[in-house]
Give the backbone structure.
Amino acid sequence: MPVSEAMVQDIVKEVVARMQLSRTAQGAYHGVFADMNDAIAAAKEAQKKVRVMTMDQREQIISNIRRKTHENAEVLARMGVEETGMGNVGDKILKHHLLADKTPGTEDITTTAWSGDRGLTLVEMGPFGVIGAITPCTNPSETVLCNCIGMIAAGNTVVFNPHPQAVKTSIFAMNLVNEASIEAGGPDNVACTVEKPTLASSSVMMKHRDIPLIAATGGPGVVTAVLSSGKRGIGAGAGNPPALVDETADIRKAAQDIVNGCTFDNNLPCIAEKEIVAVDSIADELMHYMISEQGCYLISKEEQERLTNTVLTPKGLNRKCVGRSARTLLSMIGIEAPSNIRCIVFEGEKEHPLISEELMMPILGLVRAKDFDDAVEKAVWLEHGNRHSAHVHSKNIDNITKYARAIDTAILVKNAPSYAALGFGGEGYCTFTIASRTGEGLTSASTFTKRRRCVMSDSLCIR
């Protein structure tokens, strides 16, 4: 739904009113500091209190975060769209409700035990301490809130260096987290940040002696920086997820699922379908259903060229195009599309820049394959070894298995829209930090813990 000027003013008034209520006695917002060193020091003091809290006490904080996320879902969604210009309000509201309901909390922290003739051994999950987190502008409040639930459940506190294009939204989300802690009898500053995050503040955070773990959610550059920091790093980087469709698939449903996944929040999720690889015998049928039933606009060769020159620059993606609707993108190249249009489609070779590049826009290029093996080869090439996400539409178990082994991604969605991977219409928990590059996969509270072994020799075995 388009955001009118009147709606924006109402949102601003509501947000300002809520943030006024979030001020501390000193007049500053909860967890926000001028200097990164001060933010880390405050988080370190808070962590001393969090680490000795019972699991029930931590869970009360988590419950408050969930409640506040539900209550503020629309405010956060509108703030994110207004501040970044990316995505759409309706889908962002859904994402906030999803993370509030399905992000694991303290139930993810478990203990393993062995007992026998020589005594009892426990392996427990303990906190790292203060975690440094870098968050993107594509899912600013979603990533902050999701990270906080898992990190605090594990007994940590967290210092964020959010994307500068989404700092207001990120700070508002952190205010909610600190309020949730205070209301549960916990400390302030369980989530901290700086007023003006920069590359310099990020560097301070990554090098600071009191930050043992860094979790980065963003592009390949930020993940590479984290992995070069000398600290333990969790890197949630880029993907270019292909959707493979073979001749056994329900083609009509595949068209619906692929377009629904691709257009969700204007293709901002890193797991979303970015291109299609279709077996030749069903490619025309698939394209027909996408155009005739799923609101897709087929662009000509000449329009492809104009679109390529618009969305891609010598320095990479045109930021003004990321997360914009299909109709907005088409208007940028002089096409006034009907109101039902939600995705741009065309057919091309796998090397086409609108296919081989991860765009984060509702643009779907279709690559034709002569058979299933050819489709797998092309899909693997297009995924670029990110090992992030991939999708397949097939009723052939052998084909699905072959594809899964070849693509080797952290996420593989079968016969469903991509968002099913996050528990939205599918089973499983939600996360907005998917660490394919460093191997953790879909992160949760247990990801942010250290394993500790406690051994009692020749005692406490009472069998």
Q: What stands out?
A: The longest helix spans residues 5-21. The chain has two domains: 5-237+442-452, 242-425. The mean pLDDT is 92. The chain is about 40% helix and 20% strand.
